[in-house]
Amino acid sequence: xxxxxxxxxxxYYERYWWRWIKCLWSSIDEFVDDMYESYVEHCKEYWEKETxxxxxDNNWDYCKDNCRWATLQEQMNNKxxxxxxxxxxxxxxxREYAEAFDVDIILARQRIKLFHRWKLSLDTxxxxxxxx
Length: 132
Prior knowledge:
Blueprint: H1 2-6, H2 13-17, H3 28-46, E1 52-55, E2 67-70, H4 72-76, E3 84-87, E4 90-93, H5 94-100, H6 105-131
Antiparallel strand pairs: 1-2, 3-4
Helix pairs in contact: 5-6
């Protein structure tokens, strides 16, 4: 976490640097003071192998208010590269869509991308109609 945000030699540094994401903990002691209790609680419920550090808002810094312990599944659903679709007022990532509608993940992504293209075409068409 600290290396990704502060070390220009880290292969992921640019992903964090250009989005101005920083690690606000200045030492491991500060991190442990803030996050250890919640870590223990999460491990009790999901086990240590299923516990990862996750930023709640991917565009915000690493800090106590924006970090949580999450399962691998929760973390995958919180990636900035995910695509989402809203169906009946429920927001689905492609993986959640695949599970909810019992389809393959690749098919889920294709459907969501197709939906977004369709919506974009519809929005463009509406704008053109308003000109008349």
